[in-house]
Design a protein that fits this description.
Elements (H helix, E strand, L loop, with lengths): L5 H6 L5 E2 L2 H11 L9 H8 L2 E11 L5 E12 L6 E4 L4 E7 L2 E2 L8 E4 L7 E14 L5 E5 L6 E5 L6 H4 L10 E10 L3 E4 L3 E7 L2 E6 L12 E4 L2 E5 L7 E5 L9 H19 L8 E6 L6 E2 L4 E5 H4 L7 H17 L7 E2 L5 H19 L5 H17 L23 H18 L1 H14 L4 E2 L1 H12 L4 H8 L5 E10 L2 E11 L14 E7 L6 E6 L4 E3 L11 E3 L9 E3 L2 H10 L6 H16 L5 H11 L6 H18 L2 H19 L6 H14 L3 H12 L11 H13 L5 H11 L5 H9 L5 H13 L5 H11 L5 H13 L1 H7 L4 H11 L4 H13 L5 H30 L2
Parallel strand pairs: 2-11, 8-9, 17-18, 18-20, 21-22, 23-29
Antiparallel strand pairs: 1-5, 2-3, 3-8, 4-7, 5-6, 5-8, 9-10, 10-15, 11-14, 12-15, 13-14, 16-17, 19-20, 23-24, 24-27, 25-26, 25-28
Length: 883
């Protein structure tokens, strides 16, 4: 990046030495060091064996628009005779480097600077340097967001998993924890938030210098600050620490600050008590970050949350409220699992993410007992895990990682969804008391340090007395999941034998084999007597359900009652038939959700036609009163209608589908959330004049919803739908909405909506901007991928599929953690036919050098597309055979 405008003024011609790759490479070669790009595991191990007692003092000037300049002082202890030491830095430039008071070269090669061993000493060392780092809407460690409503700018950092060295020179690996001291100069009138407590602020020229207290030892990826004209709310009950929430000034009136702060505070109290470990850090602040690419980020002392998900622009449904709470519980749980005790290396990423998600469910179950938290866990956490883990793109929880350059690709459903599901099984297997004692021991033993999965299982095993050797091998080191089926014999109306049998859900190359250790509960359901629930544990590939022999043959067998096990638990034919007729009569919410999920699994197992599933949904929908279950079955029904069925078969079912949704959204006996979900589903699937007329009437104000006019998010969703299916008035309505919307999110919503256009030139312009427009915020781009790839335009977007796959390596290098899988899922998931599958397979066959982590993500989406093609072909064949 060239130094122009304000940046030239702040950098100064003599202040910094430009990065000179060739010179730096010669220094590396002369020193005998070959670090290579990124942070290699070998480099990380060598450094962690040499240095400790690490401290960073960072001063940054944030008053320029395109770059921040500053100084860093790094103090550390080193063992004797260590030789050269490698410092990480990928910013704009570095200069005025001194080591223990002596000037040194500041050349960069592959994102590294060599600290000559001859200038280091045993014991205490001090390294100082000046540096510059970019500020940009995307692709920088400091993200700039411009508020189109009031013209204000906001800055915030995002350094996970290894972008701290893009911000400042450091040893950027999780097991080299350091104490951070921030000094940040910002424009006058701005507020600055950082990891440590604010100590003082002083006027400096046209700006203000903010000084912060030193932190506890934290990993570099957890360092953070934010700056801007934030609005703020502070809560400081007597005897409790103060919590301050920050948000954009233009959204002050929309933020329910008291509720958000209290949700965070209640989670802190509960976790400190449950773990038996006090909150480990000096302070806790919260920030609603605009255009934030994650749901949240657990920075020590300053948790950042996604503004768009935390500020409700229309009355929220139960799943939306629970989703926000779950994000809060997840990030607060990280303060113990991740921030206090951190994985030693990102191969154990699941250790922090899995526990944060699992603990979030536990907190919700305890603090919100009426929320059906474990139903949420099933639908939002376990179901996506099963989907990903049943593909050839899956991987083990522990993921070998040779270089942190590839760490961002380890994020995904295995880490976020499978891991917490496996932890739920672990807690059931060892027992609640032993599980809790083990976690307490683990957290206290490794406080402010690092640990591995072996140390976690060792602590739980010692506390519970359960040998977890096989558990670790099969769940941590082995990819995939078991497919569990029921085997029952009967005689004279009585059970002869009942067992569960497992086998791998798919054949994976290099699979080590063996059985997954598991303990489950099996429910025998009866219509004319009390149900019987029995425990069963797998010994090898079979779990005999002891106590079942001699009992009356049940109406159904549910093999994973209370959802303790991890695997594809497929119901037998007798149970499927019972579910199709009686699922609506099941009062237990979790069991009913499990049964609906089992029925959908039979569709994906190509045992039940998608149109037959859709008919069951429409038959049972009027009686369903749980918002989460209603949302799940309608989502699956939409998939059956729009993805799995041929257009002519779907067309025959669509009028009944739309009538059912309209009846539901008009039913005043139902709660708001049930009606809103029906409206959202109607908006997403409308095709016939009946539905389209209702949508136009809602836009025009001729119709209302829940006795009120629809608000902006729903208005834009309707316009997006009309554009996606190319109705004659869609462009006119789009332009009208641009004039109508005066909200803070108008520009973003318009951008996202226009991506649904069926105009190939518009699609091509979006595709170009995804790569070539440096002003395009990554969160906006990510949100637009779904409309761009709307399923109704699969024939149009097919031409973009191969180019989208060809750019995966660029995306991997230049975009944040979750953008790559979102991109792959959108472009492959927006297809449903064999022609698209052939494009993906041809890409994989011709690009053998695709990095393994990227190939796995493509395979996951590819297998889902292959399943869709298989279901569509089977459904079409069945329809042809049906008279």
């Amino acid at each position: 990046m060239n130094v122009t405008g304000d940046r030239r003024h702040f950098l100064g011609a003599a202040m910094l030495v430009p990065a000179v790759g060739a010179s730096a490479a010669r220094v590396l070669a002369a020193s005998g060091t070959s670090a290579g790009p990124g942070i290699a595991l070998a480099l990380a191990r060598e450094r962690s064996s040499r240095i400790g007692n690490l401290r960073y003092a960072i001063a940054l000037d944030l008053t320029a628009r395109e770059a921040a300049v500053g100084t860093v002082e790094i103090r550390f202890d080193q063992t004797r005779g260590g030789g050269d030491l490698i410092l990480d830095f990928r910013g704009l430039s570095i200069g005025d480097l001194t080591i223990n008071g002596r000037p040194a070269r500041a050349d960069i090669a592959d994102g590294h600077v060599v600290l000559p061993g001859s200038m280091l000493k045993g014991g205490s060392n001090v390294v100082r340097a000046r540096f510059a780092t970019p500020i940009a809407a995307a692709g920088a460690a400091i993200i700039r967001h411009h508020d189109d409503t009031d013209g204000a700018d906001y800055l915030y950092t995002l350094l996970v998993p290894s972008d701290a060295n893009l911000l400042f020179p450091c040893f950027d690996q999780p097991d080299l924890k350091g104490r951070f001291t921030w000094t940040l100069t910002a424009p006058a009138g701005w507020t600055v938030v950082a990891n440590g407590r604010s100590l003082a602020k002083d006027a400096v020229g046209a700006g203000t210098r903010w000084r912060f207290a030193e932190t506890e030892p934290i990993s570099t990826y957890l360092a953070a600050f934010a700056a801007g004209p934030w609005a703020s709310w502070t809560s400081a009950p007597e005897g409790q620490g103060a919590i301050t929430l920050y948000a954009r000034a233009s959204r002050r009136a929309e933020v329910d600050a008291d509720a958000q702060i209290e949700t965070n505070r209640s989670a802190v109290r509960w976790l400190a008590d449950w773990f038996g470990v006090p909150f480990p850090f000096a302070k806790l602040d919260l920030l609603l970050a605009p255009a934030f690419p994650f749901g949240g980020m657990e920075h020590v002392g300053a948790i950042f949350y996604n503004e768009d998900r935390f500020v409700f622009r229309e009355p929220p449904t139960l799943p939306q409220r629970l989703g926000r709470d779950a994000t809060i519980y997840h990030e607060i749980s990280h303060q113990w699992f991740g921030d206090d005790v951190t994985m030693r290396w990102f191969d154990d990423l699941w250790l922090k993410e899995g526990f944060a998600t699992y603990m979030a469910a536990r907190i919700q179950a305890e603090l919100q007992p009426d929320s059906n938290a474990w139903t949420t866990f099933l639908l939002s956490t376990k179901t996506p895990a099963y989907r990903a883990d049943a593909t050839s793109g899956t991987q083990a929880l522990w993921q070998p990682l040779d270089n942190l350059d590839a760490a961002k690709s380890n994020y995904g459903p295995i880490v976020y969804n499978k891991a917490p599901a496996v932890i739920k099984q672990l807690a059931f297997l060892v027992g609640e008391a032993g599980f809790r004692r083990g976690l307490h021991a683990f957290l206290t033993r490794h406080a402010y340090g690092n640990a591995t999965w072996q140390e976690l299982l060792g602590a739980i095993s010692a506390a519970s007395g359960v040998d977890l050797g096989a558990f670790g091998r099969q769940y941590m080191l082995r990819a995939g999941l078991p497919r569990v089926e029921t085997r029952m014999t009967q005689s004279g109306g009585r059970i002869g034998s009942l067992a569960l049998v497992q086998r791998p859900a798919q054949t994976l190359r290099g699979d080590t084999g063996g059985a997954w250790p598991m303990k489950v509960r099996v429910r025998l359901g009866y219509r004319d007597r009390a149900d019987v629930v029995l425990d069963a544990a797998f010994s090898g590939d079979t779990a005999v359900v002891r106590g079942a022999s001699g009992l009356p043959v049940p109406d159904y067998v549910w093999p994973n009652d209370d959802d303790k096990g991890y695997g594809l638990f497929l119901p037998d034919d007798r149970t499927i038939a019972w579910i199709m007729t009686h699922v609506g009569t099941v009062r237990d919410t979790l069991l009913r959700a499990l049964m609906w999920g089992g029925l959908w699994d039979t569709v994906r197992d190509v045992r039940l036609r998608p149109d037959r599933y859709l008919e069951v949904v429409l038959d049972r929908l009027p009686d369903e009163r749980d918002e989460q279950i209603s949302r799940a079955i309608l989502s699956r029904g939409a998939t059956a209608l729009n993805v799995y069925l041929a257009d002519d078969t779907a067309a025959a079912l669509r009028p009944r589908w739309e009538r059912a949704l309209i009846a539901r959204l008009d039913d005043t006996r139902l709660g708001y959330g049930l009606r809103k979900d029906a409206l959202d589903r109607l908006v997403a699937t409308a095709r016939t004049p009946l539905a389209l007329t209702r949508l136009r009437d809602l836009l025009a104000g001729r119709a209302t919803f829940a006795d009120a006019g629809i608000r902006q998010p729903t208005r834009w969703a309707i316009v997006t739908r009309l554009i996606a299916i190319a109705t004659p008035d869609s462009q006119q309505l789009y332009e009208a909405e641009l004039r109508h919307d005066q909200s803070t999110e108008a520009v973003k919503d318009a951008f996202v909506t226009r991506a649904a256009s069926s105009d190939r030139n518009i699609k091509a312009d979006y595709f170009r901007r995804y790569f070539d427009d440096p002003t395009l915020n990554e969160a906006w781009a990510s949100e637009s991928l779904g409309p761009f790839n709307t399923i109704e335009q699969a024939s149009l977007t097919l031409s973009f599929l191969r180019p989208a796959l060809e750019r995966l390596d660029w995306i991997r290098q230049n975009r944040r953690i979750f953008f790559l899988p979102a991109w792959i899922d959108a472009f492959i998931g927006g297809q449903r036919d064999a022609a698209a599958l052939a494009v993906v397979d041809a890409f994989l066959a011709s690009r053998t050098a695709v990095p393994p982590d990227v190939r796995r993500k493509v395979l996951t989406a590819r297998d889902e597309l292959a399943l869709t093609v298989r279901i569509r072909q089977a459904a079409a064949g069945s329809a042809q055979r049906t008279p």
